[in-house]
Amino acid sequence: MPAKSALRRTLAVIAALPLLTLAACGYGSDAKDDDSAKVAAGAKKIDGLDSVKIGYFGNLTHATALVGANKGFFQKELGATKASYATFNAGPSEIEALNSGSIDIGWIGPSPAINGYTKSKGTNLRIIGGSASGGVKLVVNPEKIKSLKDVKGKKIATPQLGNTQDVAFLNWISEQGWKVDAESGKGDVSVVRTDNKVTPDAYKSGSIDGAWVPEPTASKLVAEGGKVLLDEADLWPDKKFVITNIIVSQKFLKEHPKAVEAVLKASVESNKWINANPDEAKAAANKQLEADSGKALPADVLDPAWKSIQFTNDPLAATLNTEAEHAVKAGLLEDPLLDGIYDLTLLNKVLKAAGESPVDDAGLGVK
Predict the structure, then answer these.
(1) Across the strands, what pairs with 309?
(2) Residues of the chain scoring pLDDT < 70
(3) 202-214: per-residue pLDDT in tens?
(4) Are 108 and 243 in contact (CB under 8 A)?
(5) b/e map 85-109, b = 16+ CB within 10 Å
(6) How far is Cα 240 from Cα 352, in angstroms, rounded to an integer?
(7) Which one in 10, 60, 270, 275 has a CA-CA gap of 20 to 30 Å to 244?
(8) How far apart, in whole angstroms, are the C-alpha atoms of residue 285 and residue 269?
(9) From CA 292, how far away is CA 233, in angstroms rounded?
(10) How many Å apart are CA 168 and CA 163, to the nearest integer?
């Protein structure tokens, strides 16, 4: 597609980005496996593997993985090969875990996938499927910001320098005709990079006037009196844009395609169940969040957050192209070479077997 040639560039400032700093928890925390995920009698190991290590974030935009773990979908498809899980707070630490072999397959946002792929010169990972769209909002203090034009001159948080929401906000700022230095965050709007875990406290203390953040952080801010000023979905064609992808190490994909196919089949089954049983799925995702973190989300956060996320097997590859272009425009990327970042072969095999339509890689698939 036309955007493809515009993306043949190399990552320039990645070394300076905190995106590449490992999270304090190292390669992630072990997630609690659900006791209901029993191995069926007579089940056999897939590809001779004792286990497949799956990573995800503890937030609702990764609910495909949360539900798949909680309801035992992954274990069912993996047979006697144990489905083991690890949770992460940041994309860079998950990429490092993938590179080290601490996990085999992971759910992750588009910017960390782009950054990891580009930094390795296309040797470390493949995007093998989609998971979710949407679930990102600009939430503001209604006493300080009453309209979009009032954002100018205010302090707005994003999760990390160069992360998916940071790039989206910088691009939106540019489209308003305002100027901000991407790295420092200084300019017509003060972009304050703040971990999602502390953003609600920063909002309550008045140190920020709002935030461009994913769910459930956005709904946590609303519960604290914030107002949704903009839903990022409204900025995209058909209101769809990738927020979560499925990635795998190229080594694991080459050596264990049957295991990868099993995980993808479980992912497709999870999304089908989520979309057919939204209330039960919401409860299952929250149950897994509680098992992993020790704390469930309250209803006034969980309910509105869940409604803003769409669960899809389509990686929405064309929107990943656009997100990369936004990063280039913001000055955070130079010439990302994304050819080959996708390999949707196994996903499309699974979708065909399930009687569903194939998905497209926007010209960025393995040749």
Answers:
(1) 134
(2) 1-29, 31-41
(3) 999 999 999 999 9
(4) no
(5) bbbbbbbbbbbbbbbeebbbbbbbb
(6) 23
(7) 10
(8) 15
(9) 29
(10) 9
pLDDT of residue 15: 33
Indicate the DSSP class of residue 154: S
Phi, psi (deg, nearest 5) at residue 214: -85, 170
Query: In the structure encoding, which two tokens stand for residue 45, read together?
Result: 């190991």
**Closest CA relative to residue 90, chosen from 55, 117, 123:** 55
Q: What is the pLDDT of residue 362?
A: 96
For residue 32, what are its two tokens? Answer: 């609690």
In the chain, the N- to C-terminal Cα span, in Å, equals: 14
Q: Where are the alpha helices (DSSP H) in 101-148?
A: 110-119
What SS3 class is residue 264?
A: helix
**What is the number of alpha carbons within 13 Å of residue 146 lying toward its C-beta?**
1
Is 342:317 a contact under the CB 8 Å cutoff? yes
- Say if CB 262 and CB 269 are below 8 A apart: no
Question: Residue by residue, what is the 3-state secondary structure of 201-227?
Answer: HHHHHCCCCEEEEECCHHHHHHHCCCE
Pair 1, 338: CB distance under 8 Å: no
Q: Enumerate residues 6+ apart whose C-beta is below 8 A from 44.
A: 79, 80
Give residue 12's pLDDT: 36
Tell me the C-alpha distance between 10 and 244, whole Å.
Answer: 23
Phi, psi dihedral angles at 249 (to 5 degrees): -70, 140
Cα separation, 350 vs 261, in Å, equals 7
Query: Phi and psi for 172 in degrees, rounded to 5?
Result: -65, -40
Distance (Å, rounded) from C-alpha 74 to C-alpha 352? Answer: 19
φ/ψ of residue 343, rounded to 5: -140, 100
